[in-house]
Specification:
Protein name: NBS-containing resistance-like protein
Largest sheet: 3 strands, parallel
Order of helices and strands: HHEHHEHEHHH
Radius of gyration: 19 Å
GO molecular function, one term: ADP binding
InterPro entries: NB-ARC (IPR002182), P-loop_NTPase (IPR027417)
Structural class: mainly alpha
GO biological process, one term: defense response
Organism: Prunus avium
Amino acid sequence: LAKKIYNHGVIVDHFPCRAWVSLPHDYSYNNKLPLLKYVAKQVLSSLKSEGHQEINPDASNRIDEAHGILKKSRYLLVLDNISTRYEWSTLKAAFPLSTSSGSRILLTTRNPEVASQVDSDSPPHQLRRLTKEESWQLFSQVVHIPPKGKMLAKEILSKCE
């Protein structure tokens, strides 16, 4: 859903700066600086891939550079896979929103505590889990399953949440 919003034509036209940052599932940030450096580098790389050629994602002061670029224009920043309140509070402080600029941060998380902390005026959108039938239909559309592999595929799918 977040990817569809990010790539929608109206959104692309409305936000001159768009950046998508995915935090790794298997890494726990217990220090602000590595988290900020990682996110700043991802923001700069994302902006560069969106056509901002003057950006250097490997700059030594990339936290300041990312903040400075975003501060100057209307941006959409997607922070994907925020897993702790600590990560969110650190990133929220690093990328403050100016309501007058129209900038927005879209956050994805599996943690209800993080989701409830984001914006008290806007309740989180919680995706509905697929039924077993819907899961099988989606899986079948994405993966070619030979007739002999149908039982194995259903067994694999049953282990997914």
